[in-house]
Amino acid sequence: MARRRTAVVREKALEGVRKGGARARAGLAHLADRIIDIAPRVPVRDLTTLREQFPGLGPEEIADRLVAGAAKATATVGAGVGAAAMMPVPPAMPTELAAEVTGVAAIELKLIAELHEVYGVRPAGTLAQRSTVYLNSWSQERGIEATRPSTVSAAMNSRMKRELRQRIVKRTVRNLPNLMPFLVGAAVGAVMNRRDTGKLAARIRDDLRKVQVPWAELPALPALERPADALPEHALELDMGAGRHRKDDDDPG
């Protein structure tokens, strides 16, 4: 039943994009630009910090906890948005839905960045360059992209930003029905967000395992800088009680 309702919502979303024309495309591009803008503001814990917060755990165990926390965080976003209008695309997109899309994106970007730390494949470059790598990884739902030098440039030029925006728009449209809990019910929306974050994490981890560097072989890396205008930590909690090893933390689903 939920699957059928999701299919109906997806078709309505696509129909809205088609009928909305230029306004809909402009709205989605604006939403993509918002995600691009917040990416460098996502605070990321480096490997040293993660190992201190999860003492005695190995890479896979820490990754499990990060994924479980992120899934719970996006599920909370999915369940807490509340009722809004039916129109599924900006500029008619409700503020609540736009906030949910960007909120889920920020949580998943933090997850992706910290998984790269855990698997020993931190991208080279500045905060802005690493953020671009994570955006590419998120928009393509792949981890392997972060290890390719071509994904990092000295600055995001107009062509790269345009291509990245297009990928984000495509992913947003594809996932839009799963980010609309007020159309399918808060409980279903929470389940959808939890499921989709889990699927994304599985793909990222599969790719990162192929290029993983064991901790014992990692060169000394500087601590990650904290963004000057970092997003609030309480909105991006991936650990749900890091270091306390609560029983519910171990349950990813």
Question: What does this protein look like?
Answer:
With 253 residues, the chain is mainly α. Helix 5 packs parallel to helix 6. The chain is built from 8 helices and no strands. Mean pLDDT is 74; it is low at 81-92, 179-184 and 240-253. It is globular. Residues 232-253 are annotated as: Disordered.
Outline the fold blueprint.
Elements: H1 2-38, H2 47-53, H3 59-80, H4 95-118, H5 127-140, H6 158-175, H7 181-184, H8 186-210
Helix pairs in contact: 1-4, 1-6, 3-4, 3-8, 4-5, 4-8, 5-6
Pick out its properties.
253 residues, 8 helices, mainly alpha, single chain
Q: Uncertain runs with pLDDT below 50, 5 residues or more? A: 81-92, 179-184, 240-253
Assembly state of the chains shown: single chain
Question: What's the story with the biggest beta sheet?
Answer: none
Tally of strands: 0
The secondary structure category is mainly alpha
Average pLDDT rating: 74
| SSE ordering | HHHHHHHH
| Tally of contiguous helical segments | 8
How far apart are the first and last residues' alpha carbons, in Å? 20 Å
Share of residues in helices: 55-70%
Instruction: Please state the overall shape, judged from the principal axes of the Cα atoms.
Output: globular
Radius of gyration, rounded?
Answer: 18 Å
Please indicate the percent range of residues in DSSP E strands (runs of 2 or more): under 5%
Region (Disordered): 232-253
